[in-house]
Amino acid sequence: xxxxxxxxxxxxxxxxxxxxxxxxxxxxxxxxxxxxxxxxxxxxxxxxxxxxxxxxxxxxxx
Length: 62
Hints:
four-stranded antiparallel β-sheet, 1 helix, 4 strands, mainly beta, Rubrerythrin, domain 2
């Protein structure tokens, strides 16, 4: 049998960039998947932040 290659899709955590500076307690995080072969750089998406009640930029953390 041939050796199975590494999987291209990995799970990443997205965290809100505006929440840290707002001073409001808590965090806004989302879990999603990405293809690390097609997008080797860190992912950056606009997602809804329920605490701040608006759409904000969420960046990938490690």
